[in-house]
Amino acid sequence: MWMADLGNGNYKNPILYADYSDPDAIRVGEDFFMIASSFSNAPGLPLLHSKDLVNWKVVNYILPKIPEFRYRNPIHGCGVWAPAIRYHEGTYYVCFPMPDEGIYMTTAKDPFGKWTEPVNIRPGAGWIDPCPFWDEDGKAYLVAGVAKSRIGYKSVLHMVEMAADGLSLIGEEKVVFDGNLNDQVTIEGPKMYKRNGYYYIFAPAGGVKTGWQTVLRSKNVYGPYEYKMVLRQGDTVVNGPHQGAWIDTPTGQDWFIHFQDVYAAGRITHLQPMTWYEDWPIIGEYEKDENGRPLKEYGTPVLEYKKPDMGVSDKDLADSNKFPVCAPDLDDEFDKDSLGMQWQWNANPETDWAEFMPEKSVIKLNAVDSANQRPVCDYRNLLLCKWAEPEFSCVTKMSLKDLENGDFAGCVALGQNYIALGIYKDSDGYYIRKVTGNQNFDCDVSYASENVTDTALSKDVKDFHSFKSEEKEVYIKYSVKRIGYQDHIEGGLKVNNAPRELQCLEISFDSKNYSYALACEAKAGRWVGVKNGVFVSHNSLIKNEKRGSILVDYIRYN
Fold first, then answer.
1. Of 66, 367, 430, 432, which sees the most CB atoms within 10 A?
2. Helix (H, G, I), strand (E, B) or coil at 157
3. What average pLDDT does the segment 199-206 reach?
4. Which residues form the active site (predicted)?
């Protein structure tokens, strides 16, 4: 498990080596909350909680399902893009874009509980990355970017007045910054704040993997805005350090949370110190002259730093109940009556996909019909979790005794390159099925091609490749290994030393001896990192008297 807390008063970046992309965060009292985009996975919009900005746990999902009926199918790269979270007069607000459907708002009094049904406050395609803002005079505003793929242009930020309750827009939409007129190409992801009479818009520019963090400021909410670049990669290994949240501590320290796109693993989360000079923020570390003046207007990312000051005693900091050293969950023994927070489905789930059996410490997954032509990457009921760290392995144990003819159950590693390994059953017996596939995207539509091979299992229990009990138990190991680094050109700009990973699936019938290895170089999905998980699918052309299912005993990480 990746642990950012070094246990000596310092932390290391990234604080989360997992694909919590497009983060936004707030502090309410002594609690920090962070959210991230979730695209077409459900439940959507993970909510993370921390007491110190370094140690985080997923505590809730804002959306049980993605709004709109079409997300009953996986629509890779669509769905919920970069959200914003705010707290105003006792209410938590989450505003999120769906680039094809509109801008949505949902609220809660208790962030750990149920959130309201989302309201589409600006129907229509094109606007993305919204952020609500409440001014001191009671007026409210929404700032947002645009997606060229939906509206035909990019690098423009719009502002519009919003109703005080955040549930409708009431003003005229105005362009407040056009990155096409200067050197701020692909400016997007705006987050709005106010300090010392200035309105600030923190916005990434320059592209996901190659960009920087820009800050705009103005004395008028509608501008004109001046700007500076306040965080750049410099000579560090942290490419594209941008898009995130300015957040303070109870002691008045300022910090900035942002992501770094590391290709297959997705967009991992960093925490940078932030200071001010002449009412401009500088993020990361920077050099000063003899008078304390910054030598450059921007900082560069830190890889290790002193933890944020929470203003409490060393005794309190050492109390794990008050300040837990933690990370998002990985292992799951399926001993609860609901899904663990590490899991998301490949599409909006139906209520009968899973049955919880905490008394037996298993989860029952029911086979879901799929057309024979549907590729594994588009199975609706893939149950998926994010990569855990740069290198890892995990084992999933499952019982297949209740498979029916036409069922295929196993594990999957899902990205633009994907693999699946498991057991297929038909009227003649059981087969080890290996699937390798590739997703190609054209105009935001996925076109997948895949290769499937089946090898018959022996019916002799003494043979190596055979079930060893009536439970028909199998163990599937998934492993990720770093195999080197590669330089890329992204939008005409260099990304040096991008990591490369090899992912592998193997199967065992006795938990000791693994075989039928299936491997490929990992490649991120559509705007998301690679995910691994479990599934059981049914070929809809084959009709049975009853529905097949599997029992998943555990997933354990090494």
1. 66
2. strand
3. 98
4. 22 (proton acceptor), 188 (proton donor)
Q: Which residues contact 62 (CB under 8 A, 6 or more apart)?
A: 35, 44, 45, 46, 47, 83, 94, 96, 106, 115
Backbone angles phi, psi at 532, to 5 degrees: -120, 155
For CA atoms 386, 388, 393, 395, give the dihedral sign.
Answer: negative
How much is the average pLDDT of 491-510?
A: 91
Largest CA distance in the chain: 82
Which residues carry out catalysis? 22, 188
Closest by CA position to 546, among listed 406, 371, 376, 351: 406
d(CA 306, CA 309): 9
Q: In whole numbers, what is the pLDDT of the chain averaged over residues?
A: 96
Q: If you average pLDDT over residues 107-122, what whole number do you get? A: 98
Distance CA 279, CA 277 (A): 5
Hey, what are 106's tokens?
């949902």
Peptide bond connecting 14 to the previous residue in cis, omega within 30 degrees of 0: yes
Single pTM value for the model: 0.97
Beta carbons of 57 and 111 less than 8 angstroms apart: no
DSSP 471-502: T-EEEEEEEEEEEEEEEEEETTEEEEEEEEEE
Domain assignments of the chain as residue spans, ordered by start: 10-318, 343-557
Q: Please tell me the distance from the alpha carbon of residue 327 to that of residue 556, in angstroms, as a whole number.
A: 15
As a three-state string, the secondary structure of 47-96 is EEEECCCCCEEEEEEEECCCCCHHHHCCCCCCCECCCEEEEECCEEEEEE
Closest to 96 measured CA to CA, from 77, 83, 79, 113: 83
Q: Which residues pair with 437 in a beta bridge?
A: 418, 450
3-state SS class at 315: helix
CA distance 124 to 130: 14
- Total H helices, total E strands in the chain: 2, 37
Written as six digits, the tokens of 268 are: 């991992």
Q: Is the Cβ–Cβ distance between 97 and 130 less than 8 Å? A: yes
Phi, psi dihedral angles at 264 (to 5 degrees): -55, -40
**Are residues 395 and 330 in contact, defined by beta-carbon separation less than 8 angstroms?**
no
Using one digit for the tens of pLDDT, what is the confidence trace for 432-471? 999 999 999 988 888 999 999 999 998 887 787 889 999 9
Mark out the alpha helices in 393-514 (DSSP H runs).
none
Helices marked H in 78-154 — which ranges?
148-151
pLDDT, tens only, 513-539 = 999 899 999 999 999 999 999 999 999
Terminal-residue alpha carbon distance, the chain: 8
CATH class assigned to 343-557 = mainly beta
Contact (Cβ atoms closer than 8 angstroms) between residue 223 and residue 190 = no
- Name the CATH superfamily housing domain 10-318: Glycosyl hydrolase domain; family 43 (2.115.10.20)
Phi, psi of 148 (to 5 degrees): -60, -35
Residues 6+ apart with CB under 8 A from 40: 66, 71, 74, 75, 76, 77, 78, 79, 80, 346, 347
Q: Which amino acid is at 146?
A: V
> Which of 257, 301, 266, 344 is closest to 34 using CA atoms?
257
Least confident of 60-69, 103-112, 316-325: 316-325
Q: Which residue has the tokens 């065992």?
A: 508
